């Protein structure tokens, strides 16, 4: 096989239920000049057998195997080392690509100065499918990067140079994508294509509560490193408040909510970009959602904040915040989940 324009790296671990569909969605793309590198990370099910069967019929599929489960970071770096393409894309063994995903991303990278791009995506598998529309411009992604990862990992395609300079790090497993994107954003240009190019499967095997707790610990470290990388100075108290904005738990202290408002206003005033300002202001909504147990105090602080006008809050979200404050619902409670009609990743 001649040197491909594109290498797609797909780690696989015990994905026998979905791996054939994921592979098929790559090999039937409108862009055909590619290699698909599947790194099996010690699967104990029939994944390898199924992958080999497909490889026997399509030379573009290369299977690499590990003798034991070494983890996704090792599998990803192994696949990247073996990649030969000018562009390198990511894919997961349980997701499905839209037929034109790869051709659209190649065209985007060839026609712009962007170095790494993801895309919007459709979540499916649990509940009603929904399209997730994350920030897409470079300035918006840069502003969002200090709060959370807003690039869906299996939608990513990048110029080879990005992965030559930055690799996934074992110390940040569970948030290895956020870590790499935060570091890469200091040297390269990142964007999301504002169109859903992937169907992202949700299923119970993805994360236990223990893994979510471990991921939050790692994510807190990355947020603070992202602040530092962008030259944003923060006191120890501001660092604590910064992580509290995205913490997966309720805010019970009025002083904390007022402190978060002051910190976000500081970031807002220091950012000269219109899109960046909107992203920063939108974090105020997330914080207020978590502060619903404060009841009327949350509603008063939220309503009087100058951040409210800049956050692009629609009437439904405004109404739902009022309901949450009236009911004083804990973030993540069953009652909260049943009322969570708005599509905020808070």
UniProtKB/TrEMBL annotation:
InterPro entries associated with the record: Glyco_trans_2-like, Nucleotide-diphossugar_trans
Record carries keyword Amino-acid biosynthesis: no
Residue span, Glycosyltransferase 2-like domain: 7-165
Keyword vocabulary terms for this entry: Transferase
Alphabetical list of Pfam families matching this protein: Glycos_transf_2
Keyword flag Transferase: yes
GO function term, MF aspect, one: hexosyltransferase activity
Cited SUPFAM superfamilies: Nucleotide-diphospho-sugar transferases
Annotated coiled-coil segments of the chain: none
Recorded superkingdom: Bacteria
Record PANTHER family: GLYCOSYLTRANSFERASE, UDP-GLCNAC:BETAGAL BETA-1,3-N-ACETYLGLUCOSAMINYLTRANSFERASE-LIKE PROTEIN 1
Protein name: Glycosyl transferase family 2
Lineage: Bacteria, Pseudomonadati, Pseudomonadota, Gammaproteobacteria, Chromatiales
């Amino acid at each position: 096989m001649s040197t491909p324009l594109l290498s797609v790296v797909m780690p696989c671990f015990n994905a026998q239920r979905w791996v054939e569909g994921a592979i098929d969605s790559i090999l039937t793309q409108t862009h055909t000049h590619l290699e698909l590198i599947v790194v099996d990370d010690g699967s104990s099910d029939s994944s390898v057998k199924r992958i080999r069967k497909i490889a026997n019929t399509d030379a573009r599929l290369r299977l690499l195997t590990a003798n034991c489960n070494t983890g996704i970071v090792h599998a990803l770096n192994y696949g990247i080392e073996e990649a030969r393409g000018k562009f390198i894309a990511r894919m997961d063994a349980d997701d499905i690509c839209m037929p034109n995903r790869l051709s659209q991303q190649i065209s985007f990278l060839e026609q712009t100065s962007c170095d790494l791009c993801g895309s919007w995506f459709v979540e499916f598998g649990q509940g009603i499918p929904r399209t997730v529309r994350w920030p897409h411009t470079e300035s918006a992604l840069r502003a969002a990067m200090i709060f959370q990862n807003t690039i869906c990992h299996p939608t990513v395609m990048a110029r080879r140079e990005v992965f030559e300079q930055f690799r996934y790090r074992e110390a940040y497993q569970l948030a290895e994508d956020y870590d790499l994107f935060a570091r890469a954003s200091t040297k390269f240009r990142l964007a999301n294509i504002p169109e859903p190019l992937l169907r992202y499967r949700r299923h119970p095997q993805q994360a236990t509560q223990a893994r979510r707790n471990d991921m939050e610990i790692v994510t807190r470290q990355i947020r603070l490193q992202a602040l530092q990388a962008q030259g944003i100075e923060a006191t120890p108290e501001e660092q604590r408040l910064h992580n509290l904005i995205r913490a997966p738990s309720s805010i019970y202290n009025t002083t904390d909510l007022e402190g978060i408002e002051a910190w976000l206003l500081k970031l807002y005033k220091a950012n000269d970009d219109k899109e960046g300002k909107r992203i920063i202001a939108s974090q105020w909504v997330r914080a207020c959602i978590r502060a619903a147990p404060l009841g009327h105090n949350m509603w008063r602080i939220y309503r009087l904040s100058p951040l409210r006008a800049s956050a692009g809050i629609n009437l439904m979200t405004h109404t739902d915040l009022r309901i949450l404050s009236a009911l004083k619902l804990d973030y993540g409670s069953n009652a909260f989940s049943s009322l969570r009609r708005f599509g905020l990743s808070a």
